[in-house]
Amino acid sequence: xxxxxxQDCWLYKPGHKTHFxxxxxxxxxxxxxxxxxxxxxxxxxxxxxxxxxxLKSHDVVGVHFDCLHAFENEISFAPEAQLLYIQxxxxxxxxxxxxxxxxxxxxxMQDLAARDxxxxxxGLSE
Length: 126
Prior knowledge:
Blueprint: H1 20-26, E1 32-38, E2 43-48, E3 51-56, H2 60-68, E4 75-78, E5 83-87, E6 99-103
Antiparallel strand pairs: 1-2, 1-4, 2-3, 4-5, 5-6
């Protein structure tokens, strides 16, 4: 398990911080309505389209909290991109609401305190 706090996460890899370029590149991937269950302090189970997958994030507690309070239970999952979309506020006259996008990962999470010379997807750095 990570030894740092999620807000300290600087990596743009699965399970870590999500960069707007990653979201832009993956925005057209197919999404499915999803249900989210907290498994442990790093793992969520995402149920979608008759399937279930366990994925990891440094902020599973925060993600799960947002899922429990999603506006009109609007949660979707893009399995090809490993992105979870959670509507955290209602639409307004000017917006479609606020959505939280979470880039989930598989396997062991890298400790937030460790620095990685490979900055992750698309060569982004902090």
